Amino acid sequence: MDGNPFTGGEIARRLDAVRTGLAEQELDAAVFASPENVFYLTGLDHWGYFAPHLLVVPLEGEPTLITRAMERVTIESHVLAAGFRGHSDSETAADLASRVLGEKGFAGKRIGLEYWTAGLSHGLALRLKSLVSADWRDVSGLVDRLRLVKSTEEQVLMRRAAAITDLAAAAAIEMITDGANERDVAAACIAAMTRAGGHAPGFGPFIRPASRLGEEHTTWGGGQYRKGEPVFVELSGCISRYHAPLGRLIRLGGISDADARMADVTARAFNAVLGALKPGALARDVYAAWQGAADDAGLSHYRRHHCGYCVGVGQPPSWTGGNSVTGLRHDSDLEIRTGMSFHILSWLMGTGQGDDFVSNTVLLTEDGPEVLTRTPLGPIVR
Prior knowledge:
Blueprint: H1 8-24, E1 29-32, H2 35-42, E2 54-58, E3 64-68, H3 72-78, E4 83-87, H4 93-103, E5 110-113, H5 122-131, E6 135-138, H6 142-147, H7 152-175, H8 182-195, E7 206-209, E8 231-239, E9 242-251, H9 257-276, H10 283-296, E10 308-310, E11 341-348, E12 356-365, E13 368-371, E14 380-381
Parallel strand pairs: 1-5, 3-4, 5-6, 9-14
Antiparallel strand pairs: 1-2, 2-3, 7-8, 8-9, 9-12, 10-11, 11-12, 12-13
Domain Creatinase N-terminal: 14-149
Protein name: Xaa-Pro dipeptidase
Organism: Rhizobium sullae
């Protein structure tokens, strides 16, 4: 990576917002453990998050980042707005965090802790709470909610990621032909990402034949693509942990009339979502717009769990922003706000009347929804 991707002012703004949230909950400090949130509050972009990172944020004063001592050089080079304390591999992050909290006078105080994150194991949380006598409170979601609205700096990164996405998609699509080896297609896609300046994405690319469509998060194998079987492509470029996914269904040798008609429906349903993405709308209103387009096409029997989800920062093994998905669901009361970014999916597979799928990353700007990924909708026939 090329150092901290954010300006000092951007990090300061985020920390101020977090401290406002802590003050509202009458907390003296908080410990954040989500890799996505630690990155968001420090700009630390590295592959060390397999080990716990605990960021202690007090109401006043400099935050402290606690992780393995061997990460010192990286953190001191990249992190400008937090001090570093490193622990040996003979102890845990909780052991050192307990000492740091004691040194800072937080024993017996009200301290927030992210309970709902893959970045904090049950054992580590129990150890930390056993070592520090405090009034522990759950602050899960505090930083995640702040991350939903992208700043100007973040929007720049999203657009750069989207450009990488389009280049990678073009490389994959060009390689998908009758008899093409699945590995060769994947290699071309990943090479295009890398040569264009992209960073390793949170997961994917997902490229597989339609016979394995239902294997939601599997990708290429060792087979060959064959005429007559569609190929599923879903991938994202990445710049400094920001992702902008897209998806397409590639057809080899031709397209049936039913699938061609369905491709028209997916496009209309996608555009219905764009029309519904307005500040103040609720996520369920956006889903209703997508479902309404499907219903109008005679597909009232067809339902999806969502028509998209919030996207942006993503740490391996995901680009969804953590171990949960903030979806545009039929029952969600999430309020749509300017600056939010979404992976919008218009998925009409297994309808009984034809199949198609298209997805793009969309950013809601002051001027309305901006489709960041610009690969043609298709239908794409090779």
